[in-house]
Amino acid sequence: MTATSLDALRTGAPQRQVNDEKMQQVRDILVGEDLRRTEDRLTAIETQLRTLETDISRRLDAMQARIEALSGEVAGERRAAFDELAQGISDLGSHIKKISRI
Description:
Layout: H1 6-101
Protein backbone atom coordinates (compact mmCIF):
# COMPACT_ATOMS: atom_id res chain seq x y z
CA MET A 1 0.00 0.00 0.00
CA THR A 2 1.44 3.33 -1.01
CA ALA A 3 0.37 6.21 1.10
CA THR A 4 1.11 9.77 0.21
CA SER A 5 2.75 11.70 3.00
CA LEU A 6 1.28 14.92 4.27
CA ASP A 7 4.33 16.85 3.03
CA ALA A 8 3.96 15.33 -0.44
CA LEU A 9 0.33 16.31 -0.53
CA ARG A 10 1.18 19.84 0.55
CA THR A 11 3.86 20.25 -2.09
CA GLY A 12 1.93 18.30 -4.73
CA ALA A 13 -0.82 20.90 -5.13
CA PRO A 14 1.38 23.52 -6.82
CA GLN A 15 2.95 20.80 -8.97
CA ARG A 16 -0.53 19.62 -9.93
CA GLN A 17 -1.48 23.17 -10.92
CA VAL A 18 1.58 23.40 -13.15
CA ASN A 19 0.71 20.05 -14.71
CA ASP A 20 -2.89 21.19 -15.20
CA GLU A 21 -1.69 24.38 -16.89
CA LYS A 22 0.61 22.37 -19.15
CA MET A 23 -2.22 19.98 -20.01
CA GLN A 24 -4.42 22.95 -20.82
CA GLN A 25 -1.73 24.31 -23.12
CA VAL A 26 -1.43 20.92 -24.83
CA ARG A 27 -5.23 20.75 -25.24
CA ASP A 28 -5.22 24.26 -26.65
CA ILE A 29 -2.49 23.32 -29.13
CA LEU A 30 -4.24 20.10 -30.16
CA VAL A 31 -7.87 21.20 -30.39
CA GLY A 32 -7.81 24.94 -29.77
CA GLU A 33 -8.03 25.95 -33.41
CA ASP A 34 -10.85 23.47 -34.09
CA LEU A 35 -12.69 24.75 -31.04
CA ARG A 36 -12.33 28.37 -32.17
CA ARG A 37 -13.52 27.49 -35.68
CA THR A 38 -16.45 25.58 -34.25
CA GLU A 39 -17.37 28.49 -31.99
CA ASP A 40 -17.11 30.90 -34.94
CA ARG A 41 -19.34 28.63 -37.02
CA LEU A 42 -21.88 28.36 -34.19
CA THR A 43 -21.89 32.13 -33.83
CA ALA A 44 -22.47 32.53 -37.58
CA ILE A 45 -25.26 29.93 -37.50
CA GLU A 46 -26.91 31.66 -34.53
CA THR A 47 -26.75 34.97 -36.40
CA GLN A 48 -28.29 33.40 -39.49
CA LEU A 49 -30.97 31.79 -37.35
CA ARG A 50 -31.89 35.12 -35.78
CA THR A 51 -32.01 36.69 -39.26
CA LEU A 52 -34.24 33.89 -40.52
CA GLU A 53 -36.53 34.18 -37.50
CA THR A 54 -36.90 37.91 -38.10
CA ASP A 55 -37.51 37.39 -41.82
CA ILE A 56 -40.05 34.61 -41.25
CA SER A 57 -41.85 36.67 -38.63
CA ARG A 58 -42.02 39.65 -41.01
CA ARG A 59 -43.29 37.45 -43.84
CA LEU A 60 -45.90 35.79 -41.63
CA ASP A 61 -47.14 39.21 -40.54
CA ALA A 62 -47.39 40.29 -44.19
CA MET A 63 -49.22 37.07 -45.11
CA GLN A 64 -51.64 37.53 -42.22
CA ALA A 65 -52.36 41.11 -43.31
CA ARG A 66 -52.90 39.92 -46.91
CA ILE A 67 -55.24 37.12 -45.80
CA GLU A 68 -57.24 39.57 -43.71
CA ALA A 69 -57.44 41.96 -46.68
CA LEU A 70 -58.56 39.13 -48.99
CA SER A 71 -61.09 38.01 -46.41
CA GLY A 72 -62.53 41.53 -46.35
CA GLU A 73 -62.67 41.62 -50.14
CA VAL A 74 -64.38 38.23 -50.34
CA ALA A 75 -66.87 39.24 -47.68
CA GLY A 76 -67.64 42.43 -49.61
CA GLU A 77 -67.98 40.55 -52.89
CA ARG A 78 -70.19 37.96 -51.19
CA ARG A 79 -72.44 40.71 -49.80
CA ALA A 80 -72.63 42.37 -53.23
CA ALA A 81 -73.46 39.04 -54.91
CA PHE A 82 -76.08 38.29 -52.25
CA ASP A 83 -77.63 41.75 -52.70
CA GLU A 84 -77.64 41.26 -56.48
CA LEU A 85 -79.25 37.84 -56.06
CA ALA A 86 -81.83 39.27 -53.68
CA GLN A 87 -82.60 42.03 -56.16
CA GLY A 88 -82.90 39.46 -58.97
CA ILE A 89 -85.32 37.37 -56.89
CA SER A 90 -87.32 40.48 -56.07
CA ASP A 91 -87.45 41.42 -59.75
CA LEU A 92 -88.43 37.88 -60.67
CA GLY A 93 -91.19 37.99 -58.05
CA SER A 94 -92.44 41.24 -59.49
CA HIS A 95 -92.46 39.78 -63.00
CA ILE A 96 -94.32 36.70 -61.79
CA LYS A 97 -96.97 38.94 -60.15
CA LYS A 98 -97.33 40.92 -63.36
CA ILE A 99 -97.69 37.73 -65.40
CA SER A 100 -100.23 36.24 -62.99
CA ARG A 101 -102.43 39.37 -63.29
CA ILE A 102 -102.66 39.01 -67.03
